[in-house]
Design goal:
This protein is an alpha+beta fold. Helices cover 45% and strands 15% of the residues. The chain folds into two domains: 164 residues, Transcription factor LuxR-like, autoinducer-binding domain (Beta-Lactamase); 82 residues, Winged helix-like DNA-binding domain superfamily/Winged helix DNA-binding domain (Arc Repressor Mutant, subunit A), CATH 1.10.10.10.
Length: 254
């Protein structure tokens, strides 16, 4: 469903987050804006943190939105809206649309929408939540007043969530490709070349970095494609990150 453009955008986003801090900190504004570009359906993109069944709050928001007043926050607590997109164990790591959990007509009949949602343009929503450790969750919550999110939007947001979650995980010493029995790990050189590709280095630049020929770089890259069962650089890098082969916090080289 996703093509090279989406993979490249997500990889740029992950590099941006890794350069600017860790998942213990709010996502940088540039990352939230990057998500808006990847999912243009969204009017707003919010970075949330908190407890799965307790208090959660936004630590960063990008896009056009009307700030909530203290009175509206109190009203929300009083209404007690049962949020279908709240994080629960079975949905962590997955992206969900509000319209998949609740019929649009039913949602618009809720007291929440009539008194708060309509005013703030919360007609359509999508979210993904990840395990942030220490009993906390991190979430990306996107809202739109214009149209609903589609299957591509779901796939992109889910990919973003998975990659951000992996930034906070310890890196395993080795990983195996998908493919069942007989799957092989990447060689150290293949992983090294993919790590350089992940931070935007071209084949010629990688060759200079490693003091090898561009043809050798190309050969290692093609062999890595075969082992990872992919056909493009962005897909290879994304797959290698999923498997824990690449550095946990990639940084662009000078």
């Amino acid at each position: 469903m996703l093509g090279s453009t989406e993979y490249e955008g997500v990889l740029d986003l992950v590099v941006d987050v890794a350069r600017n801090g860790t998942l213990d900190e709010p996502l940088p504004p540039s990352a939230l804006q990057g998500i808006s570009r990847l999912i243009p359906t969204a009017d707003t993109v919010a970075d949330w943190v908190g407890a799965p069944s307790g208090h959660r709050h936004a630590v960063g928001v990008a896009g056009s939105y009307l700030p909530w007043t203290a009175a509206e926050d109190r009203l929300l607590d009083a209404i007690g809206f049962d949020d279908p997109l709240a994080p629960v164990p079975g949905t962590l790591g997955r992206a969900h649309r509000l319209s998949d959990a609740m019929a649009p007509n039913a949602y618009r009949a809720t007291e929440f929408y009539r008194r708060l949602g309509r005013r703030h343009g919360l007609d359509y929503s999508i979210s993904t939540w990840i395990d942030a450790g220490q009993g906390d969750v991190r979430g990306l919550w996107l809202d739109s007043a214009r149209r609903d999110f589609d299957q591509r939007d779901i796939a992109v947001l889910e990919l973003i969530g998975r990659q951000l979650e992996r930034l906070g995980r310890p890196r395993p010493r080795a990983a195996r490709q998908a493919g069942g029995e007989g799957a092989r790990t990447l060689t150290d050189r293949q992983a090294e070349i993919l790590a350089l590709a992940a931070v935007g280095r071209s084949n010629d630049e990688i060759a200079r970095d490693l003091s090898i020929s561009p043809n050798t770089v190309r050969t290692h890259m093609e062999n890595a494609f075969d082992r990872l069962a992919v056909h493009t650089r962005p897909a290879a890098v994304a797959r290698a990150w999923e498997l824990g082969i690449l550095p946990r916090t990639p940084r662009r080289l000078v």
